[in-house]
Design brief:
CATH architecture: 2-Layer Sandwich
Number of domains: 1
Strand content: 35-45%
Shape: elongated
Radius of gyration: 17 Å
CATH topology: Translation Initiation Factor IF3
Order of helices and strands: EEHHEE
Distance between the termini: 10 Å
Strand order of the largest sheet: 1-3-4-2
CATH class: Alpha Beta
CATH superfamily: Hypothetical protein apc22750. Chain B
Number of strands: 4
Number of helices: 2
C-alpha cells in the first residue's frame, strides 16, 4: 500500500476517495529507559532507547491506518499527517497519531 504525505501520487491518478483514516498508539515510558535517558541528557548525545520506542509507535500507528484504509477497499493513503503528543502525569506517555485519506489509485 502506498502511503504518502503528498496529496497526489505522480503517475497514479486517484480514482476514488474513500474517507479519512487514522491510527493512534500510546506508549508509556519505562523507568529504566528514563534512567538511561537522564544519563544521556547529562553527558550529551542521543537517547537511542526513546528513539526506538518512538519509531516503533510511529510504525504501529501507520500500520493501523493502513488496515483501516484496506478495510474501506483502498490501496493507498494520501495527505498523511503524523503528530506526536506527550500525555500523562509528568509527560510519562507518548501518543503518536496519524491520519490521511484512503483512496483507490
Amino acid at each position: 500500500m502506498i502511503v504518502t504525505t503528498t496529496t497526489a501520487i505522480e503517475g497514479r491518478p486517484v480514482r476514488d476517495y474513500l474517507g479519512v483514516v487514522t491510527g493512534e498508539v500510546i506508549v508509556g515510558a519505562n523507568l529504566f529507559r528514563d534512567i538511561f535517558a537522564s544519563i544521556t541528557d547529562l553527558v550529551g548525545g542521543r537517547s537511542g532507547k526513546y528513539e526506538e520506542v518512538l519509531a516503533r509507535a510511529r510504525k504501529e500507528a501507520i500500520a493501523e491506518m493502513q488496515s483501516e484504509a484496506k478495510a474501506l477497499g483502498g490501496n493507498a493513503v494520501v495527505g498523511v499527517d503524523i503528530d506526536y503528543e506527550v500525555l500523562g502525569q509528568n509527560g510519562s506517555m507518548l501518543m503518536v497519531s496519524v491520519s490521511g485519506t484512503a483512496v483507490i489509485v
